[in-house]
Structure formats: C-alpha cells, structure tokens
Amino acid sequence: MIIGVGVDLCSVSRIAAAIANRRFVEKVFSPEEQLYAESGGNPALHYASSFAAKEAFAKAGGWGLAKTGLASVWVSRKSGRPEIRLSDRARRLFPDRTGRIHLSLSHEGDLVVAVVILEGINDPLL
Question: Does the predicted TM-score (pTM) go above 0.85?
C-alpha cells in the first residue's frame, strides 16, 4: 500500500554555491554522502541529489524538513543503487516501520530530481 509520494527538484548550481561553506556540508550531509560526493568528478551534482532525496522524503511523509531534520535522512549508495537511510529520529516519523522506502534520482543539465515512495505493509483498513 502506498502511504506517501514526494518529489523534489534541486538546482546543482545552487548547491554548488552552498557547499563552498564547509559548515553547510557538515550540517546537512552525512559522512557517507560526503565521501561519495567528493570521490566523483562533480561533487555538487551528488550533493544536490542527496539534498533532493531528503526533501522528497520529507514531502512524502508530509512532515517537512524542519520536523524530519536534514541530518536524520541520508542517501546510501553502497548497494549500487541509491537508498534512503534513516536515523532513529526519522524512523519514528515513518508511520509503518515494516514498510519500504523507494528512491529514484535523475539529473539533466543543472537540475536534479528525486522521487520517494513510502510503501506500507500494514493496511489500517484491514
């Protein structure tokens, strides 16, 4: 059962300007996200993808970033495809802890898009 869908569009150039401030990077992105972004040829693109994924997750749940917390959600690429990971704080927001979080990322030119689908296992109507 789908319990939420979120989409976010992010400008790579806007994130490129923001990541010039190291404090922003450390406040917003996990060490895993930082390592991944800095290991590639275009760090701003990877940071923008992660930022868009955080926003899309917050929108999918209807919580907003202030309640979710930027550092409470991060993108892991260890399995070969991007996946949303949650801290205990963010996990408590997710209404069905047995559900799944689906993430799709794409980019074209200066734009990155993230789509998050929250899938629940327990149907409250059953």
Answer: yes
